[in-house]
Amino acid sequence: MTDTWEDVNDHSEVENSMQPEDTPELRELYAGFERENLIPLWTQLDDLMPMAPNPKAVPWVWRWSKLQPLAERAGDLVPVGRGGERRAIGLANPGMGGRAYISPTLWAAIQQLGPHETAPEHRHSQNAFRFVTSGEGVWTVVNGDPVRMSRGDFLLTPGWNFHGHHNETDQSMTWIDGLDIPFAYQMDTGFFEFGSERVTDYATPNFSRSERLWCHPGLRPLSGLHNTVNSPIGAYRWENTDRALTDQLLLEDEGHPATVEQGHAAVRYVNPTTGGDVMPTIRAQFHRLRPGVATAPRREVGTSMFQVFEGEGLVELGDAEYHVGHGDMFVVPSWVRYSIKAENQLDLFHFNDHPIFEKLALARTHIEGEAR
Amino acid sequence: MTDTWEDVNDHSEVENSMQPEDTPELRELYAGFERENLIPLWTQLDDLMPMAPNPKAVPWVWRWSKLQPLAERAGDLVPVGRGGERRAIGLANPGMGGRAYISPTLWAAIQQLGPHETAPEHRHSQNAFRFVTSGEGVWTVVNGDPVRMSRGDFLLTPGWNFHGHHNETDQSMTWIDGLDIPFAYQMDTGFFEFGSERVTDYATPNFSRSERLWCHPGLRPLSGLHNTVNSPIGAYRWENTDRALTDQLLLEDEGHPATVEQGHAAVRYVNPTTGGDVMPTIRAQFHRLRPGVATAPRREVGTSMFQVFEGEGLVELGDAEYHVGHGDMFVVPSWVRYSIKAENQLDLFHFNDHPIFEKLALARTHIEGEAR
Amino acid sequence: MTDTWEDVNDHSEVENSMQPEDTPELRELYAGFERENLIPLWTQLDDLMPMAPNPKAVPWVWRWSKLQPLAERAGDLVPVGRGGERRAIGLANPGMGGRAYISPTLWAAIQQLGPHETAPEHRHSQNAFRFVTSGEGVWTVVNGDPVRMSRGDFLLTPGWNFHGHHNETDQSMTWIDGLDIPFAYQMDTGFFEFGSERVTDYATPNFSRSERLWCHPGLRPLSGLHNTVNSPIGAYRWENTDRALTDQLLLEDEGHPATVEQGHAAVRYVNPTTGGDVMPTIRAQFHRLRPGVATAPRREVGTSMFQVFEGEGLVELGDAEYHVGHGDMFVVPSWVRYSIKAENQLDLFHFNDHPIFEKLALARTHIEGEAR
Amino acid sequence: MTDTWEDVNDHSEVENSMQPEDTPELRELYAGFERENLIPLWTQLDDLMPMAPNPKAVPWVWRWSKLQPLAERAGDLVPVGRGGERRAIGLANPGMGGRAYISPTLWAAIQQLGPHETAPEHRHSQNAFRFVTSGEGVWTVVNGDPVRMSRGDFLLTPGWNFHGHHNETDQSMTWIDGLDIPFAYQMDTGFFEFGSERVTDYATPNFSRSERLWCHPGLRPLSGLHNTVNSPIGAYRWENTDRALTDQLLLEDEGHPATVEQGHAAVRYVNPTTGGDVMPTIRAQFHRLRPGVATAPRREVGTSMFQVFEGEGLVELGDAEYHVGHGDMFVVPSWVRYSIKAENQLDLFHFNDHPIFEKLALARTHIEGEAR
């Protein structure tokens, strides 16, 4: 697909010159349209079919220093249990009209679970993951398989899997959730079902059964030869992510191609049955930038959300620049130009909705020729 | 995926009982949320994550007897040309908040082109088709290939193909357009580009080059071995559609399986390079019901739109029933139960957004066990 | 895969210099190998792992003027019926050691059926097709579906489908068969089962049920949405093939890309459920060359077999050149250079085993830069 | 595909009764066939198209106690170097007519490399792997990436990758090789090219670059998003294989499904870019049986080869039974019934050609209803 966004010219001007003259006959015609639930294209074209995506969502940064205290305070005041299924606080993009949407497709939240609390089991067709910004001591039970949650881990609860959480410690814990709630809501695809009011298994193993079956590199169990839409892995452990990134940078040091751009190591979390994305609507990745490195500015169809895991950096989002540090989250709406620059070594968790657009042949990416 | 929609119970009741007590501390917490662009899930769950899809779009019927005169009248009053790109009048679902959307994904319009007029060339990433309810004499030029438009034909202008139309006759012509404009708009994927102010080729061949290359059953040109996301066929002719449906009913008469259910012949328009849908976001089909036959009531995730091509019937849409005849169009929102009954032989053009949901593993269908 | 065949040098010379010295100890070692069913690689490498394919099959031409009289004579002397399942006479490549193989993968035969004879039903895992060089009046019954056989038609009996033939006329008829018998035999994949001693349906319809369901261009029956490994089409009719080729040459005349190379129209017979080959092991195509046109010389991994349907030409096969006319068949073994030149308009039926090698990532093609 | 092998009846009897009467006319016809390189099907059918596969390859066991001393002795007498590319001794199935084939598709050999020797670099289109029965100290250099070879490791050199080996120790080392040489030879697909006479990198890292990029479970480098036909992993380490099998048996002990049948743990080596087989023609697996466990008797289209890595057991191969221990290798030809019973814990390396037949829709498996 030819990439023509750069010479985009506004078509409203041309269009306005073509509006029909305002006459009594035209008004009568328009009244007829309204009576019959019709709307002419020629009054709408500029907004409905822009020259390039013109998202309502805006670039935005949420600060961890604000999020976490509010989540902890919610722990004091708000119960968790059947009905109040989760103590999750959604990030609301100011452009999205008062909805807890970071974009038209994605939801992100900070979730808190107090000491010895249980969030009851339910399931929904919406796909969900958790990323553990810090802490430990909670297990999430996914279709009966207890999965430990610890700092830096990426955990899956794909659509229609029963899941609940319980905190085995005397401290509360917070983490972030990502889901495709806005997509499901706007596309009318959502189903929901209540499950057990307690989790179905309170065991606290170090490794879930899913990991013991599936996390041996290059090996696939013969009992699991049927490909699945969702990854069968319940948890992607920080140790593995960290080691993979470390190896990429070492290989780069040794003179071998391994990084995605100079000084920028990155991995994608994948479904081992296919090598593809972990869930059909959500892509998740982890990036590590060497100090001083900046990513090539790019625009992409779809929404990206980042959370700083460690380190500090500067983010260009459209015309603005933000300084970000541990736990800060920022959203890049569709076709907004962005670049990330590391001040010290910068570790970033990243998720997006690109699989939706790739599967529908609607993906476009423009990467500027030269990194700064 | 287990199909549990039938025992859906409302969760608002359970949920309401769990709302935290309204205290000054809670109000302060909520004020903090608002300041930081946060929204708690526990006040939103019932709406955001319903037990089953609860679409804003409503079942609706647009009458051809009203649409066509308004389109003709627009032909008198509204110019067509650069800026006023198309004399297309969109069908606006009353539930969609004043937008010309039949659903969150799909756009349908009636388009009119007057004697000897030209609608100028442009292209957009939105996928489009036309279905010719009646008439002839217009050619649409798709990436330089002139394609005749005649009654009963189904024509493609997939995303990012330049296209314009011209009417070679002394009569105006109307047809219907289908696009994925609402999906592109809400998902921020749309690109648009102006082309020639005239069509690039005013030839009026009976068959487009695309048909001459691709419409020989079971044969593929060696010059076209590369699979394409969109069908390379510009026009699916009524003669072929009619013959395929006739053959299915004859085979059924002869005792062989050929129809999709008793008395219900149906074909899908497909991409010959893959056997799959014509475009990534839109499925198109044609149905023929014998007199007296009713389709098994069903619910599906996603939106279906039908237009009566010939014959008369009764349509159950949720709790309402409508009598429909030539040219009438009706929309079935996500998960709304529907069934169509033929009074005399009923021919129906049908398009939907199901490929979106199938590719994302979000499709669900429930067909009632017994047709009436 | 880098294409390095051109600078192939023989490695026997290098190798021979490396053979170990013939000593009593070595002889004892070799005797030990023999006792234990072992063979050293170093005495075999040059033959076993050549620099480029060195097929045992040789380029060969079978003359229709010889084949058809012998087939007719067999009709006088050899019964057809259970046990003598088919009056088929296989083409034996002189290089294949007395087997009726045209190559290590493919079988071709001329089959004859006398007036009012029936070849009984059976099925086998070997994939089969027929191409009708001339004549008419026989129906083949494939899994109960009677399929007319007429001049120029290409007909399928994919693996494990019951099939039998019957001749409804007072004249005998001959046609050619293609199967993957050598591949199945050498790879030990063959299964066989007897069926009815008569065909199960003696009806003589003009079009099989498979054609009535599947041969409407761009349309797929909703009763057939499940993809199949084999094409569901029983017969690809000459009228369609002829028209497709005619259209390609006309489009070329009109200045549009449609042919595979200048003056060379070609179609592939495909499975409409996938757009891919008709059967997993066999590709079938039809070519038409304008008078005077020569195909670019090429080499390919795998075997190609051609039959002249109409016209006359010259075929270069390796170092030899042959004049060919109506009904003549010629085989191109793996990696043998070949080119075909038309004297008058030349129509060629063509089948090969390339799908095997494409699926196994073993395909290589080298086309010389310039057609003569 | 219906599985009818059990009621296979011989068709030779029926067939023989149908042979035409031996007359002078028939002899003349047959002489005509011979002159024209033709062979009638009716004299060949029973052999060519058997009721079920009737392989020439026979079930066979090669004893490690015989193989290894012969390989070591070859090390004394036979040089390795350019021309004598490898000191590899092929296992020759007694049914395969004096070829070093274990079956029509697969080659297996024991390879020996003496102290401080180098086997020079070359490449070929044949796919190859090595499995290290015991020992260590050799590195194989695959397209420039040095890969350590140690006991229990499974190593890949897919088609057309340059590779050589060097032994860094004062002891010789042996391992087994598996290739698709017979398939390539009989199908005429083989290409070969000499490379460096020394290996291109004598470094001896513990882990190859391929492992450092690709062996982090569930993670894919962003620099490697393009799917590849062959696995990018150079070595599958024994530690991972052992741990995966241990975990499967522990999960079974804990009451969860993890094994392929009761007491039978098994993993497949896979390509992480697709989750599929490591190379297009060869599947590799590792099995662990608890003491006393026997696998359900089965028949499969295609050839399987096993090597006992540790433990002892009894193998039923067709009508015969063999006792096997460390290093012993046995081949199961197409459609031969087999079962393996463990005496003590039995670890088995296993490779086969099933991907060939699965891709060509020729695979069939029959597993007997009950394990003993």
From TrEMBL, chains A, B, C, D:
<keyword id="KW-0560">Oxidoreductase</keyword>
<dbReference type="InterPro" id="IPR013096">
    <property type="entry name" value="Cupin_2"/>
</dbReference>
<feature type="domain" description="Cupin type-2">
    <location>
        <begin position="110"/>
        <end position="177"/>
    </location>
</feature>
<feature type="region of interest" description="Disordered">
    <location>
        <begin position="1"/>
        <end position="23"/>
    </location>
</feature>
<dbReference type="InterPro" id="IPR047183">
    <property type="entry name" value="GDO-like"/>
</dbReference>
<dbReference type="Pfam" id="PF07883">
    <property type="entry name" value="Cupin_2"/>
</dbReference>
<protein>
    <submittedName>
        <fullName>Cupin domain-containing protein</fullName>
    </submittedName>
</protein>
<dbReference type="InterPro" id="IPR011051">
    <property type="entry name" value="RmlC_Cupin_sf"/>
</dbReference>
<dbReference type="InterPro" id="IPR014710">
    <property type="entry name" value="RmlC-like_jellyroll"/>
</dbReference>
<keyword id="KW-0223">Dioxygenase</keyword>
